[in-house]
Amino acid sequence: MSFTGKTQKECRNWIRETTKQVDAGIQLDAAKIKLEDFLNDWLISAQASLRPKSWYQYKFIVRSYIIPDLGKIRLVDLRPHHIQRLYDRKVKDGLGYRTIQLIHSVLHRALNHALKLGLLSRNPDDATTPPKPIPKEMKVLDEDHVQQLISAAQASNDRYLAIYQLAISTGMRQGELLGLKWTDVDWGRNTLQVERQLTRIPHVGYEFTPPKTKAGVRKIALGTEMLRMLREHQQRQQNEMISQGIRWSEDMLMFSTPKGDPIHLRALFREFKNLIKYAELPNIRFHDLRHTAASLMLNHGVPVLIVSRRLGHSKPSVTLDVYGHLIPSMQGQAAEVMDTYIAPIPFKQLHQTAPELHQH
């Protein structure tokens, strides 16, 4: 390896930098690698360990945001200020905080891989400060609004009525709802088994994938009213398919198109938005039905552990972090309960009511 500098200072700086790289155990050939080449290689190697949707998301982030700004920089020359400028520029451009956080997450993971391979002596992203997202106010429907929503869906003969009902009853994620099959219902035990979700993979289409977390694979108890509504929906679906000349079976999707195909999320969201307008309700997303379910359960005193299990959270602390602010203050009730224990009782009365002690 040789280097020709225009000045003695350039030569001294090159020698100093090369010595640092050798002392740090960095492979000298790696010094020629540009960030864009490394990231493209990393995407190939990471594909086996990522879910298809996540991999396509990583690929989009790398090629749309990271490579255009930083790709020509040599991997070993990448410094915290390069990355920080990227984050700051994206904030100034008005890019969403969630997307910027994803840029940070993807780049940090890739550079950690370079560190593991001995291509870097440190991760320059460790010294950056990505912008923190501004928390959005959670939107939920109250009890009256829920009744208004269901009544409007029924009055308008909305074909997605049963999805709205089950979403509010269980708090399931939208992908989990669309991945349900009739075989997942245990009519005798009044339960619903969640073991898959319908996921849209960019450039591929829709696929069944495991739930978001291990806790996402779960059994949810259903009320008799919800079961009755599912029976009605099942009958409507059977009639719809018969009219299309399609043979119905219990292995079919619980929620589908008239031909039995998966429902596209965009179609569901569009119909839900129309329903919200028709019902004259606050503007919420379909996903907010999950928040609504959690809010209603917590406000009616359902234990956090049970709410967490129904939602498919990995642990109750996740439920508290997300929905803790929705739990009504019970400080007054707690104070009254404890008052009953500390209120003084005449000692004579206490002695008379106390159990006798017998010596043996």
Write the layout of secondary structure elements.
Layout: H1 8-23, H2 35-46, H3 52-70, H4 80-92, H5 97-116, H6 143-155, H7 161-170, H8 174-178, E1 185-186, E2 191-194, E3 197-201, E4 205-209, E5 218-221, H9 224-243, H10 265-278, H11 288-299, H12 304-311, H13 316-323, H14 331-342, H15 347-353
Antiparallel strand pairs: 1-2, 2-5, 3-4
Helix pairs in contact: 2-3, 3-5, 6-7, 7-9, 7-11, 12-13
Q: What does this protein structure show overall?
A:
The chain is mainly alpha-helical and 360 residues long. The chain has two domains: 33-127, DNA polymerase, domain 1 (Orthogonal Bundle), CATH 1.10.150.130; 143-326, Orthogonal Bundle (hpI Integrase, Chain A), CATH 1.10.443.10. It is 52% helix and 6% strand. The chain has 15 helices and five strands. The chain has helices spanning 8-23, 35-46, 52-70, 80-92, 97-116, 143-155, 161-170, 174-178, 224-243, 265-278, 288-299, 304-311, 316-323, 331-342, 347-353; strands at residues 185-186, 191-194, 197-201, 205-209, 218-221. It has a three-stranded antiparallel sheet, with no helix packed on it. Helix 2 (35-46) runs antiparallel to helix 3 and helix 6 (143-155) runs antiparallel to helix 7. The protein is globular and about 95 Å long. The N and C termini lie far apart (95 Å).
